[in-house]
Write a structure and sequence with these properties.
This protein is an alpha/beta fold. It contains 7 helices and 10 strands. The chain has one domain: Glycerol-3-phosphate (1)-acyltransferase.
Length: about 260
């Protein structure tokens, strides 16, 4: 449930099939990313690309009333979205409101962290897998301090669009609501990565969609936690499908429940 992986997807790179799926790898980006100077330049370019896509497009927001209410009241919440919808999510966030994304220690994760930093977004290094206890404590500390946190509940390696249980554990212990969100865009390319990373293109219509808030009772037992986890997964899949269909794109399908086809 962390941000990690492919972030500089399609800038004239690779072969694209008839469905707009980029088939070539990103090995050259990984190689030049070993240079600190080049890595910094890539992060800056990534941020400028996001700004370009947003500035040249026509973007609509649906269902943002609950997020606006919590922002206005200064109340923290847990933002969640699928790993494949990372690209435009910095633009869904209100400027000046503190938020920290849980991001991998891996090199790719650090590229993402430095890129979103250009939008005033902080980051918490860690993973809910290995060393997950430390990440959980760090997120709880931020939420208790009144700051929001962001999680990709299917990251960092899938299964695609299947929520892990970590996000509901954070919500239960913090008492903060989970707000699902996503984006869709009329002109996009889809990578062949495990998360089917959506690459929004400039000069296009776009749509940000917020889902209904999900709360987890402090006394939730295992059955209730699983019910809440499934609610997060179902809501994210519903709004992501809605956004894609509204923009006239074929929806990205979740991986099978048993995890087959996640890669």
């Amino acid at each position: 449930m962390i941000w990690s992986g492919r972030f500089f997807p399609s800038m004239g790179i690779g072969r694209i099939d008839r469905k707009g799926v980029v088939r070539s790898g990103m090995g050259w980006v990984k190689r030049i990313g070993e240079s600190e100077r080049v890595r910094g330049a890539l992060c800056w370019l990534g941020a400028q690309y996001i700004r370009l896509v947003h500035a040249t497009g026509r973007w609509e927001v649906i269902g943002g009333e609950e997020a606006a209410r919590l922002w206005d009241q200064g109340r923290p919440f847990i933002l969640c979205f699928w790993h494949g919808r990372i690209l435009m999510m910095p633009k869904i966030w209100r400027k000046g409101v503190p938020i920290h994304m849980l991001i991998s220690h891996h090199r790719d994760g650090q590229i993402i962290a430095r890129t979103v930093a250009h939008f005033g977004i902080g980051w918490l290094a860690g993973s809910t897998g290995r060393g997950g206890g430390a990440a959980l404590r760090t997120m709880l500390k931020a939420l208790k301090a009144g700051e929001c946190v962001g999680i990709t509940p299917d990251g960092p390696r899938g299964p695609r669009m299947r929520a892990s249980g970590g996000i509901v554990a954070v919500a239960r212990l913090s008492g903060c609501p989970i707000l699902p969100a996503t984006f869709g865009v009329r002109r996009r390319r889809t990578l062949s990565s495990w998360d089917r990373f959506a690459v929004a293109e400039p000069l296009s219509r776009g749509l940000f969609v917020w889902g209904r808030p999900i709360t987890v009772p402090a006394d939730a037992d295992e059955v209730t936690l699983e019910h809440c986890r499934r609610a997060v997964e179902d809501e994210l899949n519903a709004i992501t499908r809605f956004a894609d269909e509204r923009m006239g794109c074929s929806p990205v399908e979740p991986a099978p429940p048993d995890g087959e086809g996640a890669a």
